[in-house]
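Same chain as my last thread, 344 residues:
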Amino acid sequence: MKGRLAVVLVFSSFFTICGIAQNSGMGPRTSMSNGMGGVVISGSVVTPQGTPIGEARIEVRDLQTGTAMASGYTRSDGSFEFSALPMTNYEVVALHGMAETRERVPAGEMNASITLRLNTAGTNVQQADGTATVSVAEYRVPEKARQAFHKAEAALAKNKLEDVSKYLSKALQIYPSYAPALTLQAVMALDKNDTKSAIDELDKAIHSDPGYAMAYTATGAALNQQARFDEALRACDRAITLAPEAWQAHFEMAKSYIGKAEYQHALEQLARAQQEIPHDYAPIHLVRAHALLALKNYNDAMTELQAFLTLVPQGPDSSEVRETMAKVKAFMASNAAPPSIATR
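reply #2:
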């Protein structure tokens, strides 16, 4: 995938769909039962004032090894439950934004119930009614800077990139620490393959607002362009902790895993991305085809490539996809060397 297809096209949805999802309390998820019997750990995550925190990430870790035995997210009322866990000493960790707290559960408790109090000052928190508080950093942004940024978003949706740059410059002149504007400016730099400038802008965005999930996902995209796949995975994992519905973070993680030749993990992340995105997104099919080809699952890879062409019959990658399909057909007929498709 090249240029705008790989970056701006992805993040135009990123600043609309994902931005809405992050602040609307959509679809809480919990991990949860692995079957009947075993240890049950349940409880809730609340602020120090007792307000339930939805969509906080919960990890149940073996205290001896540090291995995560189960993980998931709190429901909108802050509750969680994990069952069918083996008997051992556990540490339950709750994370939301940059905030973290933990509590130990000793071996021998078959049905443990705990309350985790999480100090979320400075991060976005989903309340029990599904609404979201606004980060401290967001409160500081002047209204004129917000208006300029919204105009930049509208221009991006219309693919008017000169107007995007103009309105972003205006927003950042008014408020240089405006994290969403810095992030979108970094995305524009990525479209020009200027990863150094992009990472510099994203570092500023994260420093300005550590709870802004989109900055971490964009960082993952930039690090993927530099083949720094482990760092990209860490950045995207932080994005998902902050905004579990952020499908772009799962998409970038899939690209990271492909870079690491961990194709099954890539397919798992693509499935998560497909689950969260509200419409069919052609590049997901292209990246999935890459993983399937590497796993020698040629029939399913052909299905994904055809799905991509159905959605984008005349796109910049369509000719290469057709050539790859022809090679796959020839290989399946003659047992020649297996083909591959580039994922940029």
